[in-house]
Amino acid sequence: MSLVARHLEANGIPTVMFGTAKDIVEHCGVARFVFLDFPLGNSCGRSFDADHQHQILELGMQLLEHATAPRTTVQASGIWNDDDAWKQLIFTDDQPFLSGQALENWMTAKQRYRDKKAAGEL
User: What are the tens digits of pLDDT across the range 8-30?
Assistant: First the structure.
């Protein structure tokens, strides 16, 4: 998405990126970035926490309106847990990337891609 945002910006369409992978998004050089220190997939806050999500979106709109320099990053408020232990658990057996049927579906899709690539279909 960061590269799409850069392309849109290059064609005169202002963008604001919302994300949780600060190092990756900043490396891509997006014009305006709202960072939330939450697990991947939660770039606009916790599910069903509409008040916090509105605050994050408002921050993005303010950034769009008031940013004066390229590659501007602002950090949204909020904490995922009372401590940062979740950062140590990401992608471990205690908190896997995917599990069960979701993992099986992902592995099947990966194998399908490998097969198509090997057959020269990609």
Answer: 999 999 999 999 989 889 998 99
Residue 33: both structure tokens together: 């970035």
Q: Tell me the CA distances in angstroms from 10 to 3, 29, 82, one per residue in order.
A: 10, 12, 40
Q: What are phi and psi of 34, to 5 degrees?
A: -100, 115
Report field, pTM of the whole predicted structure over 0.85: no
N- to C-terminal Cα separation, the chain: 21
Which of 11, 8, 62 shows the shortest CA–CA distance to 30? 8
The C-alpha atoms of residue 34 and residue 108 are separated, in whole angstroms, by 34
Tabulate helix, strand, coil % of the chain (nearest 5): 45, 10, 45
Q: Is pLDDT at 35 greater than 90 in this prediction?
A: yes
Q: How would you classify the pairing of strands 17-19 and 32-35? A: parallel
